[in-house]
Design a protein that fits this description.
Helix content: 10-25%
Largest sheet: 6 strands, mixed
Shape: globular
Radius of gyration: 14 Å
Distance between the termini: 35 Å
Strand order of the largest sheet: 2-1-6-5-4-3
Order of helices and strands: HHEEHEEEE
Number of strands: 6
Strand content: over 45%
Structural class: alpha+beta
């Protein structure tokens, strides 16, 4: 069974930002914790603005693990730009009664892998 969180990242990676945002509740609240700072926002328009403002790269989220506990879903993996690992992410989301993402939080770090992969992630 594919989890919503896996589908969300796959949709982002296809570059279909409008379809990804359609997976969100209209008043989604989100927090992106990245090396340059924390970006918090609300609403589909806020998420679309964040996504479209990112620099164009060949970004892919490569799942190492994903899990669900009721209406909560979690994922961890690498982020690549082309063939280069640029860092590691941990994402969590809450689904509302309609199965839409109403809360989303992700952290991204260039060095720290939650689950070390062979040859990647210093975890120092």
């Amino acid at each position: 069974m594919t989890l919503n969180i896996q589908s969300y990242y796959a949709t982002l990676d296809r570059g279909d930002l409008h379809a990804a945002v359609a997976m969100l509740a209209s008043e989604v609240e989100f927090a992106m914790i990245i090396p340059s700072g924390v970006n918090r926002g609300r609403g589909r328009d806020g998420m679309l603005a964040y996504l479209t403002a990112r620099p164009p790269v060949d970004r892919k989220h490569n799942m190492i693990g994903a899990a669900a506990d009721g209406d909560l879903q979690f994922a961890h993996g690498t982020v690549t730009d082309g063939d280069v690992v640029t860092g590691f992410f941990v994402g969590a989301m809450h689904l509302n009664a309609d199965g839409l993402i109403d809360r989303y939080q992700v952290s991204f770090d260039t060095d720290f892998a939650l689950v070390p992969t062979h040859g990647n992630g210093s975890n120092s």
